[in-house]
Structures are given as C-alpha cells and as structure tokens.
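Async update (no meeting this week)

Hi team, since we skipped the sync, here's where things stand on the single-chain job. The sequence we agreed to prioritize is pasted below, unchanged from the tracker. I ran it this morning and attached the output directly underneath so nobody has to dig for it. Comments welcome in thread, and please keep replies under the output.
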Amino acid sequence: MKNTLLALAATTVLVNSGFAQTVVWDERIDGNLSDDPFVATPVTFLVPTTFPLLNGVNVIRGRTFGPYEGGFPGPAPEGAMSSGYDVARFQLTPEQEIVSITITRMFTPADPNNTLGINLLRNGTIDQLLSGEPDVLQVFGATLSTDVIGTNLLEFLVTDPITDGDFFFEIREFDNDVFWEVEFVIEGTAEVQQ
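Output:
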C-alpha cells in the first residue's frame, strides 16, 4: 500500500509539472548497451503528444567498465568486460527537439573524482566522422567531471537546436568502472501536442 501511494504521488507530480518520465534503457534490466563505438544500440524516446504532458523525460542508465584484456577497438567477447564504451542511437522528427541533456548520476567506486567522456553526433557514427563523411556532425564532445551532475549540458556545450535526425550518443571511460545516468528531455512542437 505504501509503495502504491508513493507511485501515485510521483505520477501526480510528473503530470502536474508537464513532464512524463520513462527509463528507456537500464543496463541492469535491458542488458548491456553496445560497447562497440561503430554499432550503437537503438533506443526509442518518449515524446508525449497530448496536453498536459508537454515534455518527455527519457532516462538511460548504464555502467562502463575499464578495458577488457583484448583492448580497443571492437566489442568485448561474450562474458568479458566491455571496452569502456556505452553507445546508443535514437531518432528525432522535425517536430521534436532535445531541450535538456543532464547527467543525473556519475559514480566511480575506485576514484570519486574521475571524469567521463560524452559525445553526441548527428547522422552518423564516430568512424564516419573520422573518415570525413560530410553529413556527419558532432553536436558536442566533452570530458566531464562530477561537478556537472544536475547541469543541463546544452547550456554550455550547444548553441543550435537539436532536432530532426539520427543521433549517436556515446559515454566512455577506459580506466575505471563508472555507473552513470543521463536524462534527455524531448519537447514536441505545438502541432504534435494538439
């Protein structure tokens, strides 16, 4: 009964604040995200289309490991630790825009002051960007420390709207295990919300 009341209270707060939150990928439940930087795991984001849910809060949770014995590049063998990558791919329509990307959790048991690499690319992967394909654009790339937890990364990393395209999202850490959670807030235009 107590858990039911807490769930109802949380749902009421989310609905009243204009946000609908969903965990779109949790490695503990959904399995590992791809650890191959050239083949991302596809994820589907929630974008509410009816009033009053004006924004979709989409959470991805993962854990990157230090390098496995075989090293980089490529995926770790079955049952081995990953190569330090977690990569996901998602699509946005012209009516959808990312208005916030926030690291809500970043914890490294071995080193609390550790950093985390993060990249967001449009219309292609890291290998396509490095090979010079003209349609691939790096939206942002940064090495972040725990002092950015709770901060909208778009406020200091991006100036143009992030909308309409195929996106490649990468988290990387090669030295330590890192538990992380990233929240994407997707907003639909007025046409979608009616």
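Quick observations from my side:
Residues 1-17, 67-74 have pLDDT under 50 and may be disordered.
The chain has one domain: 18-193.
Reply here if anything looks off.
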